[in-house]
Amino acid sequence: MENRHSEEAQPIDAVIAWVDGSDPKLAEKRNRFLNPKAVTAHPGALPTRFASVNEIRYCVLSIMRFAPFIRNIYIITDGQDPNLYDDIKTYFPERQNSLRIVDHREIFEGFEQFLPTFNSISIGNMIWRIKGIANNFIYFNDDLFLIRPVTPSDFFVNNRPVLRGKWVPAPTFRVLWDSILIGIHRHLLRKPSYQPRASFHLGQWNSASLVGFKFRYFANSHTPHTVGRDVVERFFDRNPMILEKNIAYRFRESSQFTFIALSNHLQLLAGNRNTDKPRLAYLMPHNRSANYVDKKIQMCERNKNIIFLCAQSLEMCREADRLTIFAWLDRIMQLKQPIPKVN
């Protein structure tokens, strides 16, 4: 009991990575670093990686609605601002000082040679460097939402992060296949700039193998991720060249390791056994059947164990589906009228 009280006394912050790809200034800046002679587009520079349809609004407001214990919310951007102040003033006036915009220049201080960057993996590696951030923090993508009330112990137990995912075998075949593709394209087909797609799971394996895992790794899902800043800070303080090499890519690269997977495996090596299921509903509405979104919403309402929703690539789906998702989020977050919360 004493541990739990101590744990709940520790501040918990949230961090959200966000970009508005429709900003012409950002697009012009990005294009300056792309190879105009490349035969195919760099997989890390595809427009969907930078698209935004205001998901960030629901991400932030869901945290304020369902996780009132979160102390501060930091939004990491490149000279942009999602302008959520009116919404916060309207629905959560007591939280107007809880939101802070963090520019890339702050987290890349001392590493300015790698800016500008358009690489979410590189940006993720630096989030622990936000000035004033709590030791315990939660990392969100802007397409992640809370859909039910949560407690600090959903994220930290005995002052250690709760790691959501499962153990899976090392992706030996995928690593070998990528090596073969690189050899064929760069040497036989004479495409020196060829880059295989940066795999969600391969990036995690790169993290696990970096710190000594050989046969399996703990694969995380598309959930909010918990981090103990002190653990990753010690690792990077001892291995500055590893950090510098990983953030040197302006666009995602298949050889990079991902920050969250590194943090998780460092926690496991330190004896953290706080693991749990994702408790996630995952939506990818693009090119789905007409009732796909309705079925997912019904599943969320029926299954009270689901506390997280990830809705990816909403800019690519039918407008009607996007509006349905947002209307449902408006309702459960009580953003238009006082309707009971999801229990």
Record keyword descriptors for this entry.
single chain; 343 residues; alpha/beta; five-stranded mixed β-sheet; three-stranded mixed β-sheet; 13 helices; 36% helix
What does this protein look like?
Helix 8 (200-210) runs parallel beside helix 11 (259-269) and helix 9 (229-238) packs across helix 10. Mean pLDDT is 88; it is low at 1-7, 38-51 and 337-341. The chain is built from 13 helices and 13 strands. It has a five-stranded mixed beta sheet. The chain has a three-stranded mixed beta sheet with strand order 5-13-12. The protein starts with a helix and ends in an 11-residue tail after the last helix. It has helices spanning 2-9, 24-31, 55-66, 85-91, 104-107, 120-124, 172-188, 200-210, 229-238, 240-246, 259-269, 292-302, 319-332, and strands at 12-17, 73-77, 99-103, 136-141, 144-146, 156-157, 160-161, 163-169, 216-220, 225-228, 275-276, 280-283, 308-311. A hairpin with a 2-residue loop joins strand 6 and strand 7. Helix content is 36%, strand content 16%. It is an alpha/beta fold.
Radius of gyration: 20 Å
Ends: how far apart?
26 Å
Order of helical and strand elements? HEHHEHEHHEEEEEHHEEHHHEEHEH
**Number of E strands:** 13
Assembly state of the chains shown: single chain
Q: What is the general shape?
A: globular
**pLDDT averaged over residues:** 88
Structural class: alpha/beta
Q: β content, as a range?
A: 15-25%
- Structure annotation, total helices: 13
Sequence of strands across the biggest β-sheet: 3-2-1-4-10
Poorly predicted runs of 5 or more residues: 1-7, 38-51, 337-341
Largest sheet report? 5 strands, mixed
Residues in helix, %: 25-40%
